[in-house]
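Task: sequence design from structure.
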C-alpha cells in the first residue's frame, strides 16, 4: 500500500468519524426536542392553573415565550404543506436559519414585484397582444403559489402572518388563473387597459411598502415588539400615525380600484355579450371579496391602533 493511499485512508476514516458524530448529535437533538415539547405542554397546563395568581401582563408574556419555544420544535405540517411537500420537516432550528429564510422570502417578493411591474408597464405602453399578457398572468400564478408555500413555512416556524393575508394570496392565485384562461375576445380587450394599469399601480404600492415597512419592522424586532419572523405585507402595519398618513391613501386608492374592477367585470358579464364567459363573473366576485377583505383589515388595524393609544393614555393618566 502506497503512502498516498494510506493518507487517503486516514482522511476517509476522519470523514467517517465526523459523520458519525453528526448523526449522534442529530439523534440527541431530536430526543431533546421531544423532551422540550413535553415540558412546554406541561408548563402550559401549570400556567393555566396559576392564571388567577399572575397579572395579565405576566401571563401574556409567559404564554408568548412558550409559543415561541414551541414554534422552533418539529410539529405536524399545515395541510397546505402536506399537499405540496408531503410530511417533510420544515422546522428551522436556529435563529440564523430563520433569519436567512425570511430574508430570502423578502428578496423573492421584491424581485418578482419589480419584474411584474416592468412587464405590466411594457404591456400597457409597448405590447398589445395576448401572449405577453399571458406571460404576466403566468408569472403571477407561479408567484402566488410559491409565496403561499413560503409563507406557510414561515407560519410553521412561528411567524404571525394574519390569516386574511394568507387567504388573500390563495384568492389571488384563482384570480390570476382566471385571467390567464380568459379568452381574448372583445370583453377581454375592453378590460385589458384597466387591468394593466391596475397591475402597474399594485406593484408600485408593493414596492413602496416593502422599503417603508422594512425599516419599521427591523426596529420593532430589535425592540422585541414583534416576532423575528414577522414580514412586510400587502396591508398597513401601523405603529405611528405618521406611517398611517403616508400609506393609507395609497392603499385606499388601490382598494377602491379593486371595487371598480369588480364593477366593470360584473357589468361586462351581465351584458351577456358574448355568453358563457364564466371568467368574468368569477374574477369580478373575487375582486369584490378582495376589496371588502382589505377594507375590513384596514378598519381593524385602525381600531387596534386607537385602542392601544387609549390604553397608553389611561396608563399615563394613572401614573400622573
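Answer:
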Amino acid at each position: 500500500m502506497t503512502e498516498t493511499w494510506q493518507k487517503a485512508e486516514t482522511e476517509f476514516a476522519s470523514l467517517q468519524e465526523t459523520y458519525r458524530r453528526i448523526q449522534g448529535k442529530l439523534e440527541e437533538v431530536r430526543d431533546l426536542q421531544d423532551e422540550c415539547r413535553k415540558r412546554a405542554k406541561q408548563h402550559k397546563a401549570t400556567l393555566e392553573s396559576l392564571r388567577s395568581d399572575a397579572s395579565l401582563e405576566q401571563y401574556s408574556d409567559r404564554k408568548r415565550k412558550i409559543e415561541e419555544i414551541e414554534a422552533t420544535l418539529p410539529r405536524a405540517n399545515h395541510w397546505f404543506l402536506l399537499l405540496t411537500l408531503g410530511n417533510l420537516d420544515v422546522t428551522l432550528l436556529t435563529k440564523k436559519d430563520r433569519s436567512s429564510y425570511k430574508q430570502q422570502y423578502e428578496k423573492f417578493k421584491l424581485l418578482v414585484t419589480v419584474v411584474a411591474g416592468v412587464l405590466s408597464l411594457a404591456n400597457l405602453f409597448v405590447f398589445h397582444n395576448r401572449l405577453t399578457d399571458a406571460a404576466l398572468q403566468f408569472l403571477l400564478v407561479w408567484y402566488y403559489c410559491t409565496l403561499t408555500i413560503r409563507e406557510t413555512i414561515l407560519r410553521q416556524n412561528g411567524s404571525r402572518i394574519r390569516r386574511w393575508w394568507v387567504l388573500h394570496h390563495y384568492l389571488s392565485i384563482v384570480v390570476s388563473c382566471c385571467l390567464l384562461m380568459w379568452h381574448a375576445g372583445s370583453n377581454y380587450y375592453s378590460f385589458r387597459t384597466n387591468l394593466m394599469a391596475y397591475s402597474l399601480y399594485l406593484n408600485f404600492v408593493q414596492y413602496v411598502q416593502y422599503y417603508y415597512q422594512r425599516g419599521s419592522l427591523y426596529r420593532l424586532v430589535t425592540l422585541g415588539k414583534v416576532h423575528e419572523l414577522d414580514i412586510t405585507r400587502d396591508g398597513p402595519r401601523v405603529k405611528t400615525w405618521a406611517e398611517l398618513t403616508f400609506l393609507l391613501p395609497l392603499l385606499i386608492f388601490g382598494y377602491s380600484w379593486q371595487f371598480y374592477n369588480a364593477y366593470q367585470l360584473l357589468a361586462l358579464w351581465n351584458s351577456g355579450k358574448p355568453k358563457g364567459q364564466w371568467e368574468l363573473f368569477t374574477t369580478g366576485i373575487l375582486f369584490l371579496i378582495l376589496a371588502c377583505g382589505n377594507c375590513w383589515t384596514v378598519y381593524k388595524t385602525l381600531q387596534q391602533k386607537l385602542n392601544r393609544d387609549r390604553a397608553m393614555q389611561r396608563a399615563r393618566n394613572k401614573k400622573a
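The radius of gyration is 25 Å.
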